[in-house]
Amino acid sequence: MGNVLGGQATIRCSYKKLLAIVISAVIVIVGFSSVVRADMGAKPETVITVINAPEEDYYIALLAKYSVRYHFSPDETLSDDENEAIKTIEEYKDADGYSLFSNFTEYYRHSNDDNVYRFFGQAGVLPGTYKIMIVTLSGEVKVSPEITQKAFWAKMTYDYSSNTIAEDYNGVYTRCIPWVLIFFFITLFNEGLILLAFNLFRKKNILHFLIVNVITQIILNAINIVWYLSGADGIYFYAWIAAEVVITAIEALWYSKKLVRKDGTVSVKRNIIYAITANVVSAFADLPVFFIMLFLPATKGGLW
What we know:
Blueprint: H1 2-32, E1 45-51, E2 58-65, H2 80-90, E3 98-100, E4 108-110, E5 116-120, E6 129-136, E7 141-143, E8 147-148, E9 153-159, E10 164-168, H3 172-197, H4 203-230, H5 236-256, H6 268-293
Helix pairs in contact: 1-3, 1-6, 3-4, 3-6, 4-5, 5-6
C-alpha cells in the first residue's frame, strides 16, 4: 500500500514538473516567435534646455564623431546671417573629430521662446556621446564639453554663459518603476511554478521564498543603477549574466537549509538544484517579456 501511495505521489509530482516546464516553455516560445519589423519600438531622445541663453537669435546643433560631411548650399528664404550661421554649423569640425550629427531629419534648431530643444533618434540613431554647438546670428560660436548620455530619454541642461552641460536625472528612476515591479512579479510567478514542481510549495517555505526574492531583486536593481550611473561602456548583457550568477549563488545558499519537504525534512541537494533551476528558467522567461515591454507606452523607454 505504501508503495502505491508513494507511486501516486511521484506521478503527481511529475505532472507538476511537466506543467511548470510547459508553461515556462510557452512563455519563452511566444516571446521569441514575434515577427521582427524594422524601425519599430521606442526611439532615443535628447531634450536640451539652454539657460543663460544668448539674447539674440541662434542655432543649436548636436556634434558627434564620424558624422556626415555637408556641402553647404544657401537657402534663399533665409537671411544672410542665418545662412552664415548654418554654414558654420555644417562645415564645423574640431580637433577631436566632432562635426554636425544628422539622422537626415532636422539636425539643428533655431532659437525659440522657451530655449528647449528635442532631438529624436530616427531609425534608432542618436549619438550616445556628443557636444552641443550654438552659433548666434552675429557669428559667436560656442561648443560644449563632450558628454555621454546615460538615459534612453535624456534631459540635458546647457548653461551657455559658463559653457557647462549636465544630465538631469529627475524622472529617470520613476520610469523604471513599472519595469522593476513587472519583472519582480514575473520572477515570483516563474520561480513559484518551479517551487511547485519540486514539491516545495508549502506554507513554511513561502516566507523564505518571498524574503530571498525581495533581497535579490534589490541587489539586481542596485547593480542596474550602478551600471547606469557609471556610464560603463560595453554590453549590459554580460553584466546581467554576472548579476544572475551572483543572485543564483545567494538563493542557493539561502534555500539550502531552509526549504522543507512535506515530511518536514530538508534536502540540501534538492534545494540547491531548485535554486539553480528556478533562476535559469526565470532568466530565460524574462527575455521575451523585456522585448515586448519595449513596445508598450508605459515602459517603451527602456529600463533607464
